[in-house]
């Protein structure tokens, strides 16, 4: 089976005035279909740049990037936009939903930009199905400000899923969420991964990375560690633990 | 192009910001309404001037007497008493393409009837006068050539005179006394209203030219000669022939007459109202441009404010032209919406002006079509820069924008 992502000796250099910043220096990486990868690193390590390159938002200065066997190096701005639309799904730290726009209309957005025209009825149907996957079908007509952070992030996940992407890219998806909601969102990711969806996420939280199957650690623009996760956290189990802890706290409180 | 999808996106974006959309469109609404109202008022004025000029009669050439020179003291135009009834007869006889000729004598007289009296203009005219002035009788008949030959004591009167002297009953067949002579009233003219010099055209008594000369004004010369030409095209030729004929009749003497044509007058009057319409239109047009700049301003603010949104769209797969089109369509919808509402408001304002102030108002289809298409054009022109700016954003920077 061919890898979904193949990075070959990727470099990214920014020129900031006179100073050259080497954000990524020589990353070679292969991600197979069905993997669940966390990219970790402190700020300034180059993990965000790497993520932007993976997401076809940025082009490497040097190296080759094959996404689903398509060489992305020579692609134009708009061709990369089509690639993002068809093969990638994005989940951002700040949710990035359109304000004053209902959940279902937010989820429809990628289909409006699809290179192949999607009829409006099918659009609505697919959006509802995606909302159903993340368990928010009953909130379809709610506006983002009527939803909790966790729910907003789940709408964003539904939006990322709606065009059946090859990979789901998540940039600090739990960064703006409390620990309980984080566990909930990681549960959604785990369920999706169990259904065979490839997920790559950036995080700096160790316990969040523990929900993934594979951890990459980036430092100074290089992958310094690449290892499978042992004793992986399972969302359902963690949820149970949280609930017990809360119950215990309540007992103490009432006693 | 994904026009349908982009239109949906643009409409959703406008709907998200209802108040702002309406405020932005307000500039265009007022601009278009101003254009419609101003041009309507201008057109109304123009058409009322035109109808007044038409009421003076069509294809009319007027011969006025020249200036007098008495021992070195020169009078103005019309001061000499050089036009005679023979001149009028000669024109009628010798110039081709003349439909009617009327030698005119004007005199102010105190007229009496029914024990009432009234100061009015008594005019001596030929039977062809009504045709020349495009005037019709309300009741009765016009006097004839025979009346003119026999200096008959017959008259037709205008509405104002009829109203003032014959408070009850039909004046036709009754007698009006001019200079103490009884004139029999043959007919009453249809009301013509005020002319654009402000005088009441219906305040008049018309008698045959010969009667006016001998019995009323007691003079031998004419105040002017009115000539109606067959067609507008024939007018320059007829005007020239009249000049030649009159010159010839005067031998080698210096010309003591002046041939004018009504078109010149009409042109001057319509040129004035055209200038007024253009001026009003230009002022209103400026407010339309200001409205357009308002749209551009709001769209620019909107691009900055929605940088993140643009980033999301680009990240999710929007092409630069999708974003550009979205902002262009937003600007166009705003300005078109403003255009349509502005047309309604403008028509409403014109109606209000015509009802409240009694000004003549004419809403032309042309100005409506023009205002709406100009507002759409403004949407494109002033929307393009912000739209282009939005489309060129880098998705990464746009997403990072706070």
Structural overview:
The complex is a heterodimer of chains A (255) and B (402). Helix content of chain A is 38%, strand content 26%. Chain A is an alpha/beta fold and 255 residues long. Chain A has one domain (5-97, 167-254): Rossmann fold. Chain A has a 6-stranded mixed β-sheet, with helices on both faces. A 4-stranded antiparallel β-sheet of chain A has the order 2-1-4-5, with helices on one face. In chain A, helix 3 packs across helix 4, helix 3 (103-112) packs parallel to helix 5 and helix 5 (149-161) packs parallel to helix 6 (179-194). Chain A is globular. Chain B has 2 domains: 3-52 and 270-400, no CATH class; 83-255, no CATH class. Chain B has helices spanning 3-16, 18-55, 85-94, 129-132, 145-149, 159-165, 209-216, 235-249, 262-305, 307-316, 320-356, 365-391, 395-400, and strands at 60-65, 69-70, 73-74, 98-113, 116-125, 137-140, 154-157, 175-178, 181-189, 204-208, 224-229, 257-261. In chain B, helix 9 (262-305) runs parallel beside helix 12 (365-391). The longest helix of chain B has 44 residues, at 262-305. Chain B starts with a helix and ends with a helix. The chains are: A alpha/beta (255), B alpha+beta (402).
